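Hello,

Our lab assistant flagged a job as stuck in the queue for most of the afternoon. It eventually completed. Since we weren't sure the result was trustworthy after the delay, we are filing this so someone can double-check. Below is the sequence as submitted and the structure that was eventually returned. Let us know if re-running is recommended.
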Amino acid sequence: MLWDELTVEEHVRIFNRLKFTETRDTKAQIHDLIAACDLDRKLKAKSKTLSGGQKRKLQLGMMFTGGSRVCAVDEISSGLDPLSRRKIWDILLAERGARTIILTTHFLDEADLLSDHIAILSKGTLKAEGSAVELKHKLGGGYRVHIYNVPGFSPAPHFEGIPRKQLYDQTIYSVSTSAQAARFIAGLEQQGVRDYRVNGPTIEDVFLKVAEEIRPDSADSQEGIDPQPTSDRKIEGVVSVLDEKSSGTDLEDKGLRLLTGKRIGMASQAWVLFRKRLTILRRNYLPYCAAFLIPVIAAGLVTLYLKGFQGAGCSPTDQISIGDISSLITQIDFQLVIGPSSKLDLQALRRFESTLPGGGPGTIDSTALKIATHMVDTLEEFNQYINQNYANVTPGGFFLGEKAAPPTFAYKGNGDISLATITQNALDNLLTNVSISSQYQSFDVPWPSAGGNTLQLITYFGLAMAAYPAFFALYPTVERLRKVRTLHYSNGVRSLPLWSAYVSFDFLTVIAASVLAIVIFRGVTNVWYHLEYLFVVFFLYGLASTLLSYVISLFAKSQLAAFAFAAGGQA
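-- returned structure --
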């Protein structure tokens, strides 16, 4: 890991402080290490100004500092020019005597040059291991002598017991040991052959012999000839292709399978991309679980508003909310304060009782009314009691008045407006000795009685339905930001199968969540009107909202922004 704004020296110093065990390296030691990595002229240069090869050298310096005894190097020279690659080799060769270096590479000549011990892996399996000399001796396939077929010269001689392979431009002889190769060359020169080339065993030969990816040709196996080096195999591959075009033979018979390079169809591309999304689902399933569970859980919770729900009918009474009737007897727990006591005897209370709605025996008797009433004698006592017990006085109280005080009444102001009419009517009845029976009822509201529950169900479930499609914008956004989609397009993927695969994959979540939500609604209550229509609404909404999420993912600068705009736009 490199930081763009830090210099070469700062990188090495940071990793030295992270890894040191006893004492930190001095500034001179750090400079010596940087010089050993061929970066002494870039000591104060920021890492963002370095070339690719210089960055590899800096990473080597960061690895070596701090006294690291075991170092792992992965594909250190891939993508470098030959000069930088050679310099990297020099650095590794200089350091391998002081530490153990585990090197992985696809360059077999690099492994041959740098390694003391080589392990060859093929498809995750260890195929061979040992020193370079040991592997080439046991598995290298011996030496090969090439005699080129030059026009005007006699054909290559035949030697008894020496396997050979005749190509259109050369003849290849195979011998197992260096001693046999020396005797064979001496025999060639005795017969006047001077134009020849000798190839010794290489690590490439060993790899080609043990690797599972490449099998020896059937003809070679029958003749007991070892696999040819890379250059020869490429020539033979070209010859095989030419022969196939002319004779119609199958390449599989030659041990090679060449890709045609033809782009697969749109249906095949869509299926491959759909399987890619399945692979991503196994690694990152939380967003999809959330997208599925949010509408399902919301459907289960909002059904609480449907308990005892009665649908609105067509009659006028079914389409309005009738106001409650309020009077003194409708108060669950009332407490009055009245005065003066000289004007309120038992007969006056009975007369007041008779004015209540439904008044008379069996409603509120005089004794109960007297128990719930507090008597005062003066207006000052009335005001003082109200000030001290305003939370308990319900619906209010009144003072009938005296010579120095006018009639006065008080009512609970933070309650229903009917409390004021109840208290004033009681005052008027006792002042005038006229029985006036009154009730309070608000106007009917043009809103069904269950309309509030319906509105809450729509609001909360609508918010959940607006949020869950926003999860479908997360992966397309990160795919675009990380240039994965650009890589798809550069490799021949078309737009139509790509988006078709994505819509098909995400729409499975839409269908599953919609079906389960409908099942929950149907299982809780049957007040729905043709619930199958609601499934069509969920189906079309899921498709439209998914497409909108994809459009937002094309412009969002982060996954969070894509989710916020998608969810907010739906809400």
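-- support follow-up --
The delay was a queue issue, not a problem with the job. The result is valid. Residues 135-254 form one domain. Residues 216-256, 358-362 have pLDDT under 50 and may be disordered.
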